[in-house]
Amino acid sequence: MLSVRDLSFGYGGRKVLDGISFDAESNSVVSILGPNGVGKTTLLKCLCKMHPPNSGTVELNGEDVLSMSSREAAKHIGFVPQSTPPSGTSVFDAALIGRRPHIEWAMGKEDIRITWEALRALKIDGLALKRTDEISGGEYQKVQIARAMVQQPDVLILDEPTNNLDIANQHIAMRTISEAVSSRGMCTIMTMHDINLAVGYSDRFLFIRDGKVAAYGEADIITSDLIKDVYGIEADVLMHKGRPYVIPDLGSEQNRYQKWLRTAQTDGKRFSRCRNPASEGSVRHRARPVRS
Questions:
Q1: Domain match, 183 and 76 both
Q2: Whole-angstrom Cα distance, residue 139 to residue 155?
Q3: Which of 96, 257, 270, 272 is most buried, judged by most C-beta within 10 A?
């Protein structure tokens, strides 16, 4: 079991994580959810020693993870980042490097077998001899998952593991992760943006707001009130096959946008293009005063 207690972390005087506490059982999947910029990735990096926390503890089966050597920690914790640039090595070698914490002198037949099994599970064994800079972003994401799986860690940590994957490959990757959890009894902790995808494959959910735990528990904690509290949007939570699924109230968000637009217009400003505050990625141009 992974136990996190009162973990805090900050950059240059700004507190990013504030008193995070939770337990993650073996043979379970925990999804960390919340808006952009609330510290989800930072939390993962603290758990695997990439960012030493300012305070708090991280224990794995009673052992202090933060006091382990990097090599020892790598035997117990596997980490898949959001993205890393392809190295140009073959797909097989990129996955095989995950065995490095277990190799004393040279790789053996068991290391090769474990690597082939991971590639087959993710359906990328046909790419084994291709260079990693010659495959798609989605295929490379699966290579990174394979690399972490061949470590055979006690805790598998993934930062947005379905990033760059289409809907079919999202479910292939998530099923493979779930099967690895079941077969090895490992604990998996991952950040997700798609709440509904997380619901289908996770046992517990950790919602973060402003660097603090907003809620932690099983699927029954996912309610309309929680979604509004964490994300600031109206949404319906509907049950389907015994699981809650979040359906944003688009009408409510459109009304919010119209109200914002009317307020802007009454301020005496005209916008050639307006940014909808409910949607990311749009562009707001400089406001031009109305000529009288």
A1: yes
A2: 23
A3: 96
Cα dihedral sign, 11-14-19-22: negative
Give the integer Cα–Cα distance in Å for 71 and 90: 24
Name the strand (E) or helix (H) holding 78.
strand 77-80
pLDDT digits (tens, 9 = 90+) for 159-183: 998 887 889 888 888 888 888 777 7
Three-class secondary structure of residue 193 per DSSP: coil
Give the model confidence (pLDDT) of 45-102 as tens digits: 999 888 989 999 999 988 999 998 888 888 889 888 877 777 789 999 999 988 888 7
Distance CA 289, CA 292 (A): 9
Polymer length of the chain = 292
Strand-strand pairing, 155-159 and 187-191:
parallel
Strand 235-240 to 243-248 pairing: antiparallel
Phi then psi for residue 260, to 5 deg, are -60, -40
Residue 232 shares a structural domain with residue 276: no
Q: Give every CB contact of residue 69 below 8 A, 6+ residues apart in sequence.
A: none
Report the candidate in 160, 170, 158 with the shortest Cα–Cα distance to residue 24. 158
Range of the domain at 284: 250-289
Distance of CA 142 to the CA centre of its chain: 14
